[in-house]
Amino acid sequence: MRGLLAGLAIVLMLSSCQTDKEQKPSPTPSAYRGEVTLGSKSLTEQYLLMKMSALLLKDQGYKVNEMVFLDSPAIRSAMEAGIADLYWEYTTTARIFYHKQTPIFDPDIAYREVSRTDAGNKIIWLAKSSFNSSWALLMRKDISEQLHIYRISDLADYIRTQRTKMKFATNAEYLQREDGLDRLKEIYDFELPDDQVVAIESDLLSQTVKDGRVDVAVGMGSDPRIKKNGLIILQDDRKVFPPYEAVPVILEKTLEHYPDIRTTMESLTPYITNENMLDLMYQVDILQKDITKTSRDFLVKNKLLAP
Description:
alpha/beta; 2 domains; five-stranded mixed sheet; 11 strands
């Protein structure tokens, strides 16, 4: 789901106390709280989550090291080995790939179960955000409004009643997944012949919808090109897609040593929403803004950091 890759990770250590040009002067000895290592997968959304977390913890007096890992197995292994203290994980990633369990489609139950399982691994899941980096059905906003299609149920009703041959695009992975296109058609009760489905590269999905070459795409809800291309995400009202809600996870021993990290992280979590993350990724990926400045401006705007 998250583009997991096998093998050894390529890890880049970023010592924020040395490389962050925007950092304040090092905290005085009396303000110094300790040293923690934050991790990130190699994704823009993860860079943003790590950077915002690092800025807040540095503001609280921590020396923060930032490490970027190639993929999910690498960062999980680093946490289990005690190399990384904290990073942001996704509920269904943990459920499927770490715990080797079938997906749970209710977000609250999924969060509860991965939290319970990882407690036995000495890994603590803090409060979850509402940012859901999962699959999504994408449609042009103007066509959605014209046809009054705002939910996947609306789309299914339209296909059934209008007998229309709408064309879908997705990537090869979704076509092959057990919980992929066949589940979508079953849960929402509509037919979609093979000749109405095309498989293309993930990076091209939103552009293909924008250009009108297809009517709908099944892509990632965290793609910043959704905003750029004037698309909307149809509401998944029957929960066909498993939740990939982003949650800060921390080693139990680190949290015991620095219990105030929970408060710091949970001050940020309510602001990690789909809308905010899409906007932040749009600024970084599309407008090419600096990720540290973008993160700091967001925290200042929401009064989590002083100007």
